[in-house]
Amino acid sequence: MLYATSILHWLRRKRYQYEVTFSLYMLTPAEKFIFNSFLFLFLSMIVIAASLYFPQHVTKVLSRAWFYYAGEEVDVDALGGGTGGGAGGGGRGKEEL
What we know:
Elements: H1 2-21, H2 29-70, H3 76-79
């Protein structure tokens, strides 16, 4: 029971810090909802973009680092780290239809 109350107290404090930091305590509930919705949508888009494009970026950076280190190019598409099916392209192009 003591553990649950301490968690609730911590969550209330974090909510208070969030409202004070972004000055949400002076907004109406409708304005808070709109602000929080925009914030949620923005952060969701950031997470989705990072999850889609970050792996491609890492493979590209690693292949360039390997080129600078060893002097030979690595075929990323042959290793399976290319743009096959993600948002960055791949899939069936116009010429394959």
